Amino acid sequence: MNDDISLLLNSLNDAQRQAVAAPLGRQLVLAGAGSGKTRVLVHRIAWLIQVERASPHSILSVTFTNKAAAEMRHRIEQLLGMSPQGMWVGTFHGLAHRLLRAHWQEAGLSQNFQILDSDDQQRIVKRVIRELGLDEQRWPARQAQWFINGQKDEGLRPQHIQAAGDLFLSTMRSIYEAYEAACARAGVIDFSELLLRALDLWRNNPSLLEHYQRRFQHLLVDEFQDTNAVQYAWLKHLAQNGASLMVVGDDDQSIYGWRGAKIENIQQFNEDFSAEIIRLEQNYRSTDTILKAANGLIAHNFGRLGKELWTDTGEGEAITLYAGFNEHDEARYIVETIESEFKKGSRRSEMAILYRSNAQSRVLEEALLREKIPYRIYGGLRFFERAEIKNAMAYLRLIQHRHDDAALERVINVPPRGIGEKTVEALRSAARAQNTSLWQALHDLVGARAVSGRAASALNVFVELIDTLALKAEDLSLHNLVQQIIEQTGLVTFHKEEKGEKGQARVENLEELVSAARSFDFSGDEEMTPLGFP
Length: 534
Fold this sequence. Notes:
Layout: H1 3-10, H2 14-20, E1 26-31, H3 37-50, E2 59-63, H4 66-80, E3 88-91, H5 92-102, E4 114-115, H6 118-131, H7 141-153, H8 167-186, E5 188-189, H9 191-204, H10 206-215, E6 218-221, H11 229-239, E7 244-249, H12 264-273, E8 276-280, H13 288-298, H14 327-343, H15 361-370, H16 387-400, H17 405-411, H18 421-434, H19 438-447, H20 453-473, H21 478-488, H22 491-496, H23 500-518
Parallel strand pairs: 1-7, 1-8, 2-3, 2-6, 4-5, 6-7
């Protein structure tokens, strides 16, 4: 073994060496958490170049985030002492975009096609729904947008959808068809279309596919458990002519099924390619105690291919389990533990609180604030800074005080009720001219018939909503009032229609606001109303 190869393999454990030095063919690397999968992929690329004498131009490596792709390119450059410029290293979307820019004519696109972001896509969907004469309340744009993206993730065009008399499917198919036509006229495509159009490029242009099959003789894919149907089909087309193919994934870490990821792709891969399975089971992040607990839990998963994480870093501290009576007892225990560890000399920067959903942060934040313990929320906003919570709180403020202009502006068209920016600007102008609140200007404009019939009707509905909720506030407890607000204003329905993780998180946050209101005890002060104002 020459010095370069020895240097390449010496820093790896046995399983990692097996993956890096595997014969050219098809390998499925089951990589447990913290087992060095990125290290394996980078060393595999170095092995292909240094040992197998592969050209960098013949290597395509797919990651799932731009950050991961940049990290991989950096590590390759450090390991090989050469720029990875010749090889294609990027995300599925990034590589698809690169292909479509190079072959825009074959893909049926305009040369300067633009990519829609989520907001732009939703605006086009909304316009299409209006053009079709559909009721926007019954057929919300968010729902149609989610449907279209979901169909594209499965590789389906409108003509592939069999409605079979189903009103929902037939309506969604019509929206999808009209949306595709609108995008074609505007010369734009959405994010999901990048992948589907790149797959169509393979399917509709055999000579072009053959060209790239000859070029990319070595394919590597990271986070394979998160691939969707289109991504897997795209990869199969590219690999079907004999390229070496290594996919790295973990069937125990598949968490993106809600956005189209198919864990079945890992099982299907072995059937499609008769792959060698290599398991990376040595963990470098956790203690033996933690891994044993994790293995015990993971063993209950169904349909897994199986692996057992282990470490040689030592047994480590025992895991402490505390079962709180409720969320407040749980928060109290956490805060007391933090204070105890701080007194023993631990730094606050060494402490972290993990929770399952954003809504759970509210009770924890209150407990930390009460004890004056500084904290920082990562990956999200503090509970009362979240948009959906601010919206609900604005309704509460407006019910109590109609002349709260900031509250009125925030919720007058949230959820959308047909009160556009033009109407709101008319309210602002009238309020400035008469030196009154927006609420008073609203009544004056409607009374004077100074706004269009449709806008006037929407404003009247809004006024009736606020007045009705205000009447209920006189007899309801605070938490029941909050429950009424999030339901009667349509906030809960609005966020449920968002679909996906974001919409579900917002619904959970609103429900947590009801819980927060329930825990507020104002009964000891007869001069206080449920909203806290005299």
